[in-house]
Amino acid sequence: MQVLIIEDEQRVADFLARGLKAEGYFPSVVNDGAEALHAIRTQQPALVILDRMLPNLDGLTICQLIRAQQLPVRILMLSALGDTAERVRGLTSGADDYLVKPFAFEELLARLNNLANRQSGAAQRNCLRFAEIELDLDLRQVRRAGELVNLTARELNLLELLMRNPQKVLSRERILANVWSMNEDPLTNVVDVYIRRLRNKLDKGHAVGYVRTLRGTGYYLSSD
């Protein structure tokens, strides 16, 4: 399995490359953040070991760009910054795992093996896709253009209904019946409220809004 090591500290990069090669991986090394995306596109590795602090382009930005461009790799981020806030920043930028320096090689290897196993099973995941939206039904996670979108359970159910009926206008009554298991709206506008919440979370900040309204009729997903 190919592994791309993006690490500017040559001693660490050489150590990782030698160790991974001995374990049966096929490692390659990039020392500059600006070269990272090109290397991923050309080499198409299954796994990426990404240093947080890099020259020209930092690891957080690289991670966000990888996810925005939907490059199919698993990312293990390395960093000397180990407090909870920094770990969270790394994971929310799109990293699949986060390992603090200094680290034991055995732990890094275990984490890589875990990511490799997750990669091999990814194709079997139960996912719905519409344009830039991906809904993983097993993990109950939503991403737009590779970026995680945090939705409540009810918002996820609403999005799932819309994604199972792309381009099809769904009435408020049908949405109530499927998402709330009700035939009448006791709050008179609960569907409108949740559609607004979904739109704010899913479409805000993007040039194209997917959650559409057909006035007086209902709601639907469209990328046109």
UniProtKB/TrEMBL annotation:
Domain Response regulatory, residue spans: 2-116
PROSITE patterns, A to Z: OMPR_PHOB, RESPONSE_REGULATORY
Highest taxon listed in the record's lineage: Bacteria
Sites of 4-aspartylphosphate modification: 51
Keyword Chloroplast part of the UniProt annotation: no
Start-end of DNA-binding region: 125-223
Span of domain OmpR/PhoB-type: 125-223
Keyword field: DNA-binding, Phosphoprotein, Transcription, Transcription regulation, Two-component regulatory system
Pfam families according to UniProt: Response_reg, Trans_reg_C
The keyword Iron-sulfur is annotated on this UniProt entry: no
N-terminal signal peptide: none
Protein name: Response regulator transcription factor
Source organism of the structure: Rheinheimera tilapiae
